[in-house]
Every structure is written in C-alpha cells, then in structure tokens.
Amino acid sequence: MLELGTNRIYGAKQQYGDEDRGVAQREYLGFSDDDEAMAAEILMDYLSEPLEG
C-alpha cells in the first residue's frame, strides 16, 4: 500500500479548503482514474520485463 500526505498543518486546509478563513479547496493529493490506470500499466510493464528475458 502507498500512502501520500504531509505533516504540515496547512496541508489539510489546502486539500479540503477552509470556508471560515476564505481558503479555497485545492486538491493536490491523490490519483485520478487515468493516473491509477497509467501507474498500473507502468508497474506491469516493469514487472513483466524479467519474464520476457
């Protein structure tokens, strides 16, 4: 499993926004469906290379 994140206090405010302080939501963590598909394809290519010999 891969986990991404930050230990900075402002990280959650940027990810989710803060209406009380006027901070807009600016998602910067995570994978879109396209990103996930591309990562899986790259991983499978990498893992299959030794088997192709």
Question: Strands, helices and their partners?
Answer:
Elements: H1 9-16, H2 33-52
Characterize the structure shown.
The structure is a single chain. With 53 residues, the protein is mainly α. The protein has one domain. Helix content is 53%, strand content 0%. It contains two helices and no strands. It starts with 8 loop residues before the first helix and ends with a helix. The mean pLDDT is 84.
Terminal Cα separation, in Å? 28 Å
Shape label: elongated
Low-confidence stretches: none
Summarize the helix and strand pattern as letters. Answer: HH
Mean pLDDT: 84
| Secondary structure: number of strands | 0
Structural class: mainly alpha
Helix content: 40-55%
For the largest beta-sheet, the strand count, sense and barrel status come to: none
Q: Tell me what portion of residues adopts beta-strand conformation.
A: under 5%
Q: Gyration radius, to the nearest Å? A: 17 Å
> Helical region count?
2
Number of domains: 1
